[in-house]
Amino acid sequence: MGENVRAESGDWAESQGSVGGGSATEFRNLVAGQLARTLVEIGATAFSREEILADEGLRNRDLVGFGLGSLDWIRLAVRVGEETGLELPENTLVDAEFRTVSGWSAALAELKGEGNDA
Amino acid sequence: MSRGHEPTTATERSERDEGRPKPGVERSDSAVERSETLGERPELAELVLEGRSRVDGGALGPHVVGAAEAALRRAGVRPGAIVLLTGLDAVEALGGMVAAWRLDAVPLVAPATRRLPREAHGVCRLGPSAQALPATDAAPVAGLERTAVLMPTSGSTGEPKLVRRGVASVLAEAEGYREHLALTSADRVAVPVPLTHSYGWGVAMSALLTGCALDTTPPARARTLARLMDTGAVSVVALTAALARLLVEVRRDGARRVRLALVGAGGVSDALDTAFAARFGRRLHRGYGSTETGGVFLGREGIGRPVAGVRVRRPARGATGELVLETPAPVEGVLGAEPTGLWHTGDLVRRDPDGVCHHLERLRPGLRLNDRFVDTAELTGALGALRGVTDVQPLVLPRSGTPEFEDLYVVVESLSPLGEDDWERVMSALPESLPRPCVLRCEALPRDVLGKLDRDALVTWIRDKEKRGGKRAR
């Protein structure tokens, strides 16, 4: 996945840094929370952030499987990007296998770990 | 890379472009001479290659086009044959298209997931890395003599059909965009909408024929696209309303601004126009067209005015009615149809006294349910008139377990539940000939990056709703 990883240039990301340490757990919380918000907005089956975090099946479910159209998951990616200052790799957006809460949080943690955000 | 300039005058553009081959309906002498020796499609290929455009930083030259052409030759592609381009990135798709034209073949561009009509079965397929699968059914398809490209459409009955775009129509569309967008070879044009859609394809082709650099950053990378706009890395951008709305949510990351932002494939609300102007410093231009015609209207209000060569036959100025157009090049239409110079758009518009048209609604065709057509206009109209309802989407789905039987669904988009009285009034007023629909409510219909209904997501939502017993969720 690493070769597909891209990050924001400049120090903008750090200034936004609402996800301080950037561990996979923190990113999982963030992505699950944003997904829960989106599900409410689009009127899909509403899972709370806690429900998503507690259920491995939900964490590994393609976002399309929650009823998100492509526009919805792109908006979710934008929000996650705005929150973290990191840009999700292309494969986590277009591959159903990685377009999941787990896939996105792992990719974000990898980005943060590589120090590409500054 | 970008000039970030204001639009120039026609005279200035003319002076600047002097000496360059002029693509479009007014061809240069060299192009006219060439047309005596080349077919229309090979000539179109040469016009694109003459532009020497760069696509996503790389040249659209021998490396890309040559590799695709060699693969198609090895696959035995003959003049007039259909070549399916699917599953390709933008550079490969454009390179494959030009390669097919050089062989006088007819490219068919389609998303990988699209169900294709029978004419597209068994044709040569060009895949990633210039891998071509030879045709398995080489039966010739009639009526493609002047066709530049084929695109699938779902058609009025839900059965996929192939729409033809003629070479002359493509050149006329390119001229229309070039004129209105004031494109020059110094522009870098971002087309983040899919090139498998006629809007994105048309703008991209116009950019290539003008010699602009082309950027195809996909809509999934909305933040990257916003940064390209903020840093002046692109000068013109072709968006959809949905994508423009997403971009507004991205924080500014630079002081530059695009020269022009166009929204096609859907309407632009005043609120979006204002929000976009506040965020990006430019008001939105609007475009209108169809798979059959390409872009035919451009402007700052409504759907704009007809581009050069297009005339509005109906409605008259100051009147409302179906938009009927005379086009500068024949509309080839779906395979099997007779080309026509008079195009009935199927869209209801209001035409201002000054000629600007405003889209009112799609004149929706009936749905086919269990092998018969049903007219849902009365039902959708009644539901759409209820307080708080922002959209109504009828659709027919096979019944779970017994797919031979189909059911009619109507999904109502509304933030608040429908009132019981309203509901009873609508249902009791339905004509007896209309099968009782399953009416569901959602707060927001799923939409794709073009702002169009994401049918797969909606079906997933409906099935999920049914599993949980929400047969009539109000």
If you had to describe this structure to a student in words, what would you say it looks like?
The complex is a heterodimer of chains A (118) and B (474). With 118 residues, chain A is mainly alpha-helical. Chain A is 57% helix and 3% strand. Chain A has one domain: Non-ribosomal Peptide Synthetase Peptidyl Carrier Protein, Chain A, CATH 1.10.1200. Chain A has helices spanning 12-16, 24-42, 49-54, 56-59, 70-84, 90-94, 101-113; strands at residues 6-7, 86-87. Chain A is globular, with a radius of gyration of 13 Å. Chain B has 13 helices and 25 strands. In chain B, the strands form seven sheets. Chain B has a seven-stranded mixed β-sheet with strand order 10-9-11-12-13-14-15. In chain B, α9 links the parallel β11 (236-240) and β12 (260-264). In chain B, α3 crosses α5 and α6 packs across α7. Chain A binds chain B through residues 6, 10, 12, 41-45, 64-65, 67-72, 74-75, 77-79, 81-82, 87, 90, 93-94, and chain B through 218-224, 242, 246, 249-251, 253, 441-444, 446-449, 451, 454, 456-458, 460-461, 464, 468.
